[in-house]
Amino acid sequence: MLTIALPKGRILEEANNLMKKAGVIKEDIKEGRKLIIDCSDKNIRFILAKPQDVPTYVKYGVCDVGIVGKDVLLEEGEGVYELMDLKIGLCRLSLCGKPIPIFQQGEMVRIATKYPKSTGDYFRAKGQQVEVVKLNGSVELAPILGLSDYIVDIVSTGKTLKENGLVELEEIAQISSRLIANQATYNLKHNLIENLALKLERALPAE
Ligand code: PRP
Fold first, then answer.
1. Residue-level pLDDT at 146
2. For residue 158, how many other CB atoms are within 10 A of its CB?
3. Most buried among 152, 165, 167, 185, using CB within 10 Å?
4. Which ligand 1 atom is the nearest neighbour of the CA of 163?
């Protein structure tokens, strides 16, 4: 039996469509109150988790594999295998803010984000010192209310930024969803996991 962790929210529909196309599932998986979902293939069951928790369920082996955004993996992805780029959930991790010039080297700025590790790593690598404030969502509020000078956040359609009078200033990383696996069960359930990976790979959108 394979237990697959899926992220609630924006990726779920695309993950569902990919798995259907791949023949992994026949019936749609939709977000609701039910968190553990059995499927007609008795060898597979799904759990629906907060995206940030998907790597944790996989790392601790209560799920064998998972689908999760690279943005989450950059923060929480230690201790799991990243098997495949699923080419869904495409977006960018970017520095955003009010339509003002980007800060200069040496200038001390505060950045609010759900991604403190990626933000710290990126600016440290550029030799820029920044103060990072961790928020858990709706980070666009921070520069509007004066909590921070900038934000680092996911930009997909750009609608959220636009509606809040903010702009994308610098792209930090291209993001897509990945198939991840528990390191121990990857060996123990190698055939099942490879079979799943192969089916998904065949269903990926053409380059
Ligand atoms: C993400 C992200 C932005 C928004 C970007 O938030 O943090 O707020 O989506 O998408 P867009 O460019 O298509 O407008 P999410 O919806 O995951 O919720 P959150 O703000 O509560 O984290």
1. 97
2. 15
3. 152
4. 14
